[in-house]
TrEMBL record:
Entry keywords, A to Z: Heme, Iron, Metal-binding
Name listed for the protein in its UniProt record: C-type cytochrome
PANTHER family in alphabetical order: DIHYDRO-HEME D1 DEHYDROGENASE, PROTEIN NIRF
Record flagged with keyword Heme: yes
Keyword Metal-binding tagged: yes
Domain Cytochrome c per the UniProt entry, residue ranges: 49-127
Length: 550
C-alpha cells in the first residue's frame, strides 16, 4: 500500500496509527511504565461482572483503540504477553484515572469500580483461541511513503552524520536526533510506542530501523528526516536485526512464535516457525542479532534449548540436520545454506546473548538457576556446541556486556540484574578474573576504545539507581561515581564517536540527556527530555565498537 506521506491525511488504518500513536494514553502507560511507582489497589469492590459482560465492556470502551481481539489498532495489543512487566494495580489506575494530555480519558465516572477491576483482569487474560499473525496480515500492514527513492542521497542538515545520536524518548514516544559534536537537537519526531531492542543502522548510516514491542518495524531516512516504510512483523516482538550489508531485516517475535525475514524495503520474504525440527514444541524468539563477519543472523529461543544461525550469504554451505555418516559422499539430503536454519543444540535455552569481538562465540545466559549456580553459556558458533559455563551467578545481563583488552588477554565484563557486581571473565580460559562490587544491580555497561574507563549503572537498585560507577579497565578498580538526584534513575551510558564524551539518561518523564566529559567525569551539558531510555551513536554502532552493544 502506497501513501503520500505520514504527516497529513493518512490513507490507511496503519498510517493513521503512525500519526496518532504518540497520543494514545493507556497503551503508552501499559507498555512503558514498568518502572513507575505502583499504585495502591482500591478497597475491595463488589463481585466482578460475568465474563460476557466484561467482553461487552471491552468492546464498548476499548476495542476502537485496541482492537476487537485486543491485538492493537490506534493503541497497542492488550495481551498478557504485552503486559508481562506491568502490575495490575498500575493498569487499573490508568483505566480509572486516565493520563493527562493524552487521548486516554478517565473512566472512573463512566464505569463502576467493579467494572474497572474486571476490565483490568480481562486484559491480562489470554485470548482464546490464541491470536495469529500470518503472512497475509504482515503484507496487509505494510505502508511506504511515495517517492522515497528519489530523496537526496546526502544529509539535508549540517552536522557530522557519523557522530549522530538517535535518542529514544519513552516518556512521550518520540525520537530525537542529536548532533554529537555540538550536542544540539537536529530533529524530533513521533515514534511507535515502546520501542525496544535498540535501533539498527544500515552500513552507510543513512537509514535506521526501529522495532516496537507491538511488532511494528519502522524504516526512517536519517538524511532526509522522513519515514520510508513500516510493517508489522508480529503481535509481540522482542527485537530486530539488520544485516551487515544492509539488505535484510529480521524480527524475533514472542507472539506468534516466529522469526520473520524482510528485505531492506520491509517487504516480507520468509517466516520461520520457532519450533523444534519435528515441530513438537514451539518457542518465543528471545533475541536476534546480526553477525556481520559471518554474514548471518543468530537467534536465541526462550523456551527451546537451541541457538539458530541463518546465513544471508548466497554461498553458504548446505545444512545437514541430524547425524550424517559422511556428508562429503552425498549420503544425506541437504537443505540450502542460504537463508536456512542451522541449529545448535544447547543444554538449556538462552534469554539473551552477545558476541565475542571476532564473532566466533555467542555468550548468553538463561533463567537464573534455583540453586544459584551460574547460567551463563559460551557457545562456539563453528563447532556448534556449548564449550564452557561462564562463572557468573545471579542474573547476568550479557546482552549489555562489553569486551576489552586487559593483562595481555581479551576479557568480557557483564552487569548483573540481581547482584551489585560486575563480573570480568578471561575470554581464553573462560575463568573469572574478578568480581567488581557496585552500589547495586545494574542493567547497562558501556565503554569505548579511546577511553580507559567503563561506566555502569545501578538502575535495578531502589536506593542506588541514581549512581553511575566508573571502572578503570586497566586496574579493574572503581575510580569514581557520578551521582544524580536520589530516587531518580540515571542509566544507559553511550559514547560519542571519538570517545571524548559519555552521554547518560536521566530516566524520568521530566528527565534529561546529560553529557559528561569522559576524562574528568564532569557534566558538560544537560538537555531536557521525556524519559530518554536509550541513545545510540551511528558510528559506534556501524563500526561495532567493543564498548557498546551490537
Amino acid at each position: 500500500m502506497i501513501q503520500s506521506g505520514f504527516n497529513a491525511h493518512p490513507t490507511s488504518a496503519s498510517s493513521y496509527v503512525f500519526e496518532v500513536i504518540r497520543r494514545t494514553g493507556l497503551a503508552a502507560f501499559l507498555l512503558a511504565a514498568s518502572a513507575a511507582t505502583t499504585a495502591q489497589t482500591p478497597a475491595a469492590a463488589p463481585a466482578a461482572p460475568a465474563n460476557a459482560a466484561v467482553q461487552a465492556l471491552y468492546q464498548q470502551h476499548c476495542a476502537s483503540c485496541h482492537g476487537e481481539q485486543r491485538l492493537g489498532g490506534m493503541g497497542p495489543a492488550l495481551l498478557p504477553e504485552s503486559l508481562s512487566r506491568l502490575r495490575k494495580p498500575q493498569a487499573l489506575q490508568v483505566i480509572r484515572d486516565g493520563r493527562a494530555a493524552t487521548q486516554m480519558l478517565p473512566f472512573k465516572d463512566a464505569l463502576k469500580p467493579e467494572e474497572i477491576t474486571a476490565l483490568t483482569d480481562w486484559i491480562y487474560t489470554p485470548v482464546t483461541p490464541a491470536p495469529s499473525w500470518e503472512t497475509a496480515d504482515i503484507a496487509a500492514s505494510r505502508v511506504e511513503t511515495e517517492g522515497w527513492k528519489t530523496w537526496p542521497a546526502k544529509p539535508q542538515w549540517s552536522a557530522d552524520p557519523m557522530n549522530l545520536f538517535v535518542v529514544v524518548e519513552g516518556g512521550d514516544h518520540h525520537v530525537t536526533l542529536l548532533d554529537g559534536d555540538r550536542f544540539e537537537p537536529i530533529h524530533r519526531f513521533a515514534s511507535r510506542f515502546a520501542l525496544h531492542g535498540g535501533p539498527k543502522f544500515t552500513p552507510d548510516g543513512r537509514y535506521v530501523f526501529f522495532g516496537s514491542r507491538d511488532g511494528w518495524i519502522t524504516k526512517f531516512d536519517l538524511w532526509n528526516l522522513k519515514t520510508v516504510a513500516e510493517v508489522r512483523a508480529g503481535i509481540n516482538m522482542r527485537n530486530i536485526a539488520v544485516s551487515g550489508d544492509g539488505q535484510w531485516v529480521m524480527a524475533a517475535n514472542y507472539l506468534p512464535h516466529t522469526v520473520v525475514l524482510f528485505d531492506a524495503e520491509l517487504k516480507h520474504q520468509r517466516t520461520y516457525p520457532a519450533q523444534l525440527l519435528d515441530g513438537s514444541k514451539s518457542s518465543r524468539a528471545s533475541a536476534v542479532y546480526d553477525a556481520e563477519p559471518r554474514k548471518s543472523f543468530v537467534v536465541a529461543l526462550k523456551d527451546i534449548p537451541e541457538l539458530w544461525e541463518i546465513s544471508y550469504d548466497p554461498k553458504a554451505p548446505p545444512i545437514y540436520d541430524g547425524l550424517v555418516h559422511d556428508y562429503k559422499m552425498g549420503e544425506a539430503i541437504a537443505k540450502p545454506g542460504f537463508l536456512g536454519v542451522r541449529r545448535t543444540p544447547l543444554e538449556e535455552p538462552l534469554d539473551d546473548f552477545f558476541f565475542s569481538q571476532d564473532y566466533a562465540y555467542a555468550l548468553g545466559a538463561s533463567r537464573p538457576h534455583a540453586d544459584g549456580t551460574p547460567s551463563g553459556q559460551v557457545v562456539n558458533l563453528d563447532v556448534r556446541r556449548k564449550i564452557a559455563t561462564l562463572p557468573i551467578a545471579g542474573m547476568p545481563h550479557l546482552g549489555s556486556g562489553i569486551t576489552f583488552d586487559h593483562g595481555g588477554t581479551r576479557v568480557l565484563a557483564s552487569p548483573n540484574l540481581q547482584d551489585g557486581v560486575i563480573s570480568v571473565i578471561d575470554m581464553k580460559t573462560w575463568k573469572l578474573v574478578k568480581d567488581i562490587a557496585t552500589p547495586g544491580p545494574g542493567f547497562f555497561m558501556r565503554s569505548h576504545e579511546n577511553t580507559p574507563y567503563a561506566w555502569t549503572d545501578s538502575m535495578m537498585a531502589p536506593k542506588a539507581k541514581h549512581i553511575m560507577t566508573i571502572i578503570d579497565k586497566r586496574t579493574l578498580q572503581p575510580v569514581a561515581e557520578v551521582k544524580g538526584e536520589p530516587g531518580k534513575t540515571l542509566a544507559h551510558i553511550e559514547f560519542d564517536k571519538d570517545g571524548r564524551h559519555a552521554l547518560a539518561s536521566l530516566w524520568e518523564d521530566d528527565g534529561a540527556l546529560i553529557v559528561y566529559d569522559a576524562a574528568t567525569f564532569k557534566e558538560v551539558k544537560r538537555l531536557p527530555m521525556k524519559k530518554p531510555v536509550g541513545k545510540y551513536n551511528v558510528f559506534n554502532k556501524i563500526t561495532r565498537s567493543e564498548g557498546t552493544s551490537h
